[in-house]
Amino acid sequence: MVKVFSSAVLGALLVAAVGLIGTSSASAAQTSAATSATSQKATGSAPKPATTAQKATAPKAPSQTTAANRKTGGTKAAAASRASAKPTRTAGKSRRTAPADSEPVIAESALCYQRTAGRGRCEPQCLPYTRCRSGISSCRTGHENGPVTWFRCEQSRGNTSAEPADGRVLVLGRNAHGMPTGHTLYVEKAHPRGDGRYELTLSHTNYDRRCNLETNMLAEYDPSSQTIDVRSGNWERWGRDLKVAGFIHN
């Protein structure tokens, strides 16, 4: 009987041990499952914001200020380029710049040209102007004599030539173009062409019977025939084969 009781107790103990082991295994399984689920949730969450180091290395978009500066700089450069390409303007109008070598001619002419117009004849007539420009004051006969009379007087003194030169006075003879006493012009430049002829740059007043001044008039002079052909200016249309008395010099 004791043996039977011992066997029963031993069996009961075994059953209890087996049940305890099963319970522990189930609890461990549940704990493991819960831990796995928590880990999965943490892993599947939204990405964390970038760290300070990551932010520093990330490329930055150009700021609005920088873009505006670049735009302004480009606009200023373009405006400067356009301004440098514009022609010179005076009083809102474009004007052509006179050649540099003509400016002294105009300046020197102005010193000898002060136009006046009263009830009598206008001034300066061609002869006073050319006297002033050339500095030749000889052969005055009372009231200002005419161009041809002046030439004849200077010729008698040996102060004339058939050859032009800078600073000389060209004297036109009497002609049918409104010059009954001739006409004088100041030789600004005389350039020999190589064929015996000369290219002349002239200035004169009273070319229009109103004592106006004309500078940088171009003409071609032929010593063999002692005539000039006007190539530019107010006489260009009709100024051909004009007879030259000669040139007055100091």
Overview of the structural elements:
The chain is an alpha+beta fold and 250 residues long. It has a domain at 103-113 and 121-248: endopeptidase domain like (from Nostoc punctiforme) (endopeptidase fold (from Nostoc punctiforme), Alpha-Beta Complex), CATH 3.90.1720.10. Helices cover 39% and strands 20% of the residues. The protein has helices at 2-43, 52-57, 64-85, 103-111, 126-134, 147-156; strands at 89-90, 93-94, 160-161, 169-172, 183-192, 198-205, 213-222, 227-230, 242-248. A six-stranded antiparallel β-barrel has the order 4-5-6-7-8-9. β1 and β2 (93-94) form a beta hairpin. The longest helix is centred in the N-terminal third of the chain and has 42 residues, at 2-43. It starts with a helix and ends with a strand. The relative contact order is 0.09.
Question: Secondary-structure map with pairings?
Answer:
Layout: H1 2-43, H2 52-57, H3 64-85, E1 89-90, E2 93-94, H4 103-111, H5 126-134, H6 147-156, E3 160-161, E4 169-172, E5 183-192, E6 198-205, E7 213-222, E8 227-230, E9 242-248
Antiparallel strand pairs: 1-2, 3-9, 4-5, 4-9, 5-6, 6-7, 7-8, 8-9
Oligomer: single chain
User: What is the name of the CATH class of the domain at 103-113 and 121-248?
Assistant: Alpha Beta
**How is the biggest beta sheet arranged?**
6 strands, antiparallel, barrel
The coarse overall form would be globular
Gyration radius, to the nearest Å? 56 Å
What is the succession of H and E elements?
HHHEEHHHEEEEEEE
Tell me the span between the first and last alpha carbons. 177 Å
Question: How many β-strand runs?
Answer: 9
Assigned CATH architecture of the domain at 103-113 and 121-248: Alpha-Beta Complex
User: What is the count of helical runs?
Assistant: 6
Low-confidence stretches: 1-6, 31-35, 37-47, 55-59, 65-69, 77-100
Average residue pLDDT: 73
Class of secondary structure makeup: alpha+beta
For the biggest β-sheet, the strand order reads 4-5-6-7-8-9
Q: Which fold name corresponds to the CATH topology of the domain at 103-113 and 121-248?
A: endopeptidase fold (from Nostoc punctiforme)
Instruction: Give me the CATH superfamily of the domain at 103-113 and 121-248.
Output: endopeptidase domain like (from Nostoc punctiforme)
Estimate what percentage of residues fall within beta strands: 15-25%
Q: Tell me roughly what share of residues is in helical segments.
A: 25-40%
